[in-house]
Design brief:
It contains ten helices and six strands; from the N terminus they run E-H-H-H-H-H-E-H-E-H-H-E-H-E-E-H. By secondary structure, it is α/β, with parallel strands linked by helices. It has two domains: 8-18 and 107-228, HAD superfamily/HAD-like (Rossmann fold, 3-Layer(aba) Sandwich), CATH 3.40.50; 20-103, DNA polymerase, domain 1 (Orthogonal Bundle). The protein has a six-stranded parallel β-sheet with strand order 3-2-1-4-5-6, with helices on both faces. It starts with 7 loop residues before the first strand and ends with a helix.
């Protein structure tokens, strides 16, 4: 596929550049130690990651609220381990998690190298469904904020990926056209289908080698982008 006409690259953040799973594990280690919760972090994470992903899917399609997501992704994970936690503690853990999560700054392998490379040839941008304050801290603490000309989040746009309006909002903010732009992300539904629905080209970051039937270019490592862009 020929991407020679591209001038603007839009990245998703979590699970694409910023290693959400690894950073979550470090955050929960600190939180469980702080509150002396006698639960294996590894066992908790095994339940938390798919539960969190499902709640984000529901949040993206406006089926649950921001507050519901933050509370029940923790409650359901503890329930899966048959460990009883009262609502007051869950709310405290939720607050601590949001505080600790952006303090970790693990990126996917090759992220800095590929951002260095691409930033010499393109304008780089972020489109994220994450919450503004948290995502800003992630970008700053991971020392990658300077790579991006614009950052669009769902709070600014008033809608979440895959809604067309967030892509149109991001394009307007970046002063970019659909034809000269491309989206790179890990979610087929939010990033890939969302971009394609407005006519924007996309590349699927399929790091987990998920089986899918979508006719879209995909990579399994960020450095593969250097072959196409």
């Amino acid at each position: 596929m020929n991407f020679q006409n591209k001038k603007h690259i839009f990245f998703d953040l979590d699970h694409t550049l910023w290693d959400f799973d690894k950073n979550s594990a470090f955050a929960f280690e600190l939180i469980f130690e702080k509150h002396q919760i006698p639960v294996s972090v590894n066992a908790f994470i095994q339940h938390y990651l798919p539960i969190n992903q499902e709640y984000w899917r529901l949040y993206q399609t406006n089926q649950v609220s921001h507050e519901h997501l933050r509370y029940y992704r923790l409650k359901d994970s503890f329930d899966a381990l048959n460990y009883v936690v009262d609502s007051t503690l869950i709310n405290q853990l939720s607050e601590d998690y949001i505080q600790y999560l952006p303090e970790n700054n693990h990126l996917f392998d090759g992220a800095i190298e590929v951002l260095d490379y691409l930033s010499n040839h393109y304008k780089l941008h972020i489109i994220t469904n994450g919450f503004s304050q948290v995502q800003t801290r992630k970008l700053q603490n991971a020392n990658i904020a300077h790579y991006f000309a614009t950052v669009t989040n769902s709070e600014m746009a008033g809608v979440k990926k895959p809604h067309p309006n967030i892509f149109n909002f991001a394009l307007s903010l970046a002063n970019a056209t659909i034809q000269e732009s491309i989206m790179i992300g890990d979610s087929i539904e939010a990033d890939i289908q969302g971009a394609l629905s407005v006519g924007m080209d996309a590349i699927f970051f399929n790091e987990l080698v998920i089986n899918h039937s979508h006719p879209v270019m995909q990579i399994q490592h960020l450095l593969e982008l250097k072959k196409f862009l």
